[in-house]
Amino acid sequence: MLDVLNSFIVELRQAGLPVSMTEHLDAASAIAHIDLVERSTFKATLSATLVKSEDHQAAFNTAFEVYFADRVFNDDGEVDENDVSGESSESPSDATGLKGPGRPMGGGGGSAMSAEELAEMLANAIRHDNKDLASQVAKESVSRFAGMEPGRPVGGTYYLYRTLRNLDLDSLLEELLEEQRAQGSGDAMTSLQERLARGAARQVSDEARDRAIGVQQNVLGHRGRDTGEAGQVVGGSGGHAERREGSRDLGRARDTDDIARLAGLVVADAKARLELLHCTLERNR
Amino acid sequence: MTEKEAWRFENSAQVAEQLAAVDYLADEAIASTVFLADRLAKPVLVEGPAGTGKTQLAKSVAELTGARLIRLQCYEGLDESKALYEWNYRKQLLRIQASQVGVGEGSSDWSALEEDIFDEAFLLTRPLLEAIRATEPVVLLIDEVDRVELETEALMLEVLSEYQVSIPELGTVKASQIPMVFLTSNNTRELSEALKRRCLFLHVGYPDVDRERLIVETRVPGISGELAEQIARIVRSLRAMDLRKAPSVSETIDWAKTLVVLGKETIDEKDAVETLHILLKYQSDIERASAELTGTRR
């Protein structure tokens, strides 16, 4: 459990949330006190210990939903609508931060493929255990974000991300689940196959991560040059420090924040796919 | 902190249940945070728009735990002597004079006297120290903490993390029991990282229609279910409008009470428009809302 928490916090940090060591420890000791079966309690617990500003709440909610994607629990009819997450997109005070599915602008930086096609390709890649193709798709998906210009409204790209996420999680995994059921009828998956499938998914996730970090660096690098600062990015975990540096100019920091968050969420998305795939496999055994 | 019997709650569901018993309807986030505040012995920073029950939460928790509520109302200019403690200067002076009269000149031992006048008997405890020194269960409410200056905020850190107060002349006063601490903020300014780090964070926003209806039903006895439902829906639609000041939950409750006093079972647009001034506090808002209510609602 602590490992899971650890990596979730890494995701949060990559998404631009400043989670301190103290907060990490708090969360760790907090989950010792709660019933982990209750997903909403778990979410509220992490939220209370890790999120210290309303501006970050929306990002946390998205990250949580993606990272601890619960298609498995959903079968029990768990409805999350009454959750804080359900309200956040409508509450009037939510005007900061992520703007939700705003205007569908930003057509994806000139990429020819539609989101559906990408999703289909990814499904194929995982189905046939084609790592090259999978990473290709990952590159393709993320390169759309690379087309993002500094200063360009983030709402549009965020919309794109949502499209991708919805397509991938809802249709792709349902599809895979369906297939498993159809052909497998029980113990179709051997442990080897499972390992391979997981490997493929992990590959996707790693690619996406590298790319996301690349995007982050790119954007931040541009900024540094534009303003005449030395925009050197230290490394993968440099996002936080970068944000700090950028915070001299509030408007700029807000932008950077959003972009970092966006990039982090792509990673979380890929990761969620892996988890879900794993669930599919588990269930079929 | 590690003694099991010292814990106030079993789980977050129990918190919600007990809060409901004192007429406070908590959602999962609220219940979990209160539960964790007890388990982790951490203060809770409650943030959100005015009138959404932030202060009431502290009061309700005090009520259900049978604890005394100690309240520190924050304002600009609040300082140590009003928040923590103060020496009773006049009493000290009197003491000095008394000793001079009684013992006579020269013979009074100054160090003995000094020790004497910096005794607890001359200490005026203010809310923070009072909460720390209390031997019975207390709930400390630091209301509208965003109003104090950064320096005063820093002053509270020792209390919030160590549950102790250092008084140079007396030493350190440690809490004999960990009080539950609630800080509320309307977010008029960003609080310091140091403060946030020491607290659990809870954002209380406007409730959804169902929860608001339940809140109205619990807080306004004798209201019909239909009226409560209508009220919740109207308020919801008003909040969706671009008003200068959206109606708060407490204003919703006031409105519901008014309608009940007027003997309404259901509400039509005429009633709504006539009583709108209870819900909205700006004339421009009232005008806009009236137009909206008479225009698009039945």
What does this structure look like?
The complex is a heterodimer of chains A (285) and B (298). By secondary structure, chain A is an all-alpha fold. Chain A has helices spanning 2-14, 21-31, 39-50, 54-67, 71-74, 84-88, 115-127, 131-146, 154-184, 191-226, 239-246, 250-283. Helices cover 69% and strands 0% of the residues of chain A. In chain A, helix 4 packs parallel to helix 12 and helix 7 runs parallel beside helix 9. With 298 residues, chain B is of the alpha/beta class. Chain B folds into 3 domains: 4-76 and 132-203, Rossmann fold, CATH 3.40.50.300; 85-121; 209-296. Chain B is 51% helix and 13% strand. Chain B has 15 helices and 9 strands. A 5-stranded parallel sheet of chain B has the order 2-5-8-1-9, with helices on both faces. The A-B interface holds A 20, 22-23, 26, 29-30, 33-35, 40-41, 43-45, 47-49, 51-54, 57, 82-84, 86-88, 90-93 and B 11-12, 27-29, 31-33, 35-36, 39-40, 42, 45, 47-49, 187, 190, 193, 196-203, 205-206, 208, 210-211, 239-240, 246.
- Contiguous uncertain segments of 5+ residues of chain B: 1-5
| Sheet with most strands of chain B | 5 strands, parallel
Strand content of chain A: under 5%
List the domain count of chain B as a whole number.
Answer: 3
Structural descriptors:
heterodimer; A: 285 residues; mainly alpha; 69% helix; 0% strand; elongated; B: 298 residues; alpha/beta; Rossmann fold; 3 domains; five-stranded parallel beta sheet; two-stranded antiparallel ribbon
Brief account:
Chain A has helices spanning 2-14, 21-31, 39-50, 54-67, 71-74, 84-88, 115-127, 131-146, 154-184, 191-226, 239-246, 250-283.
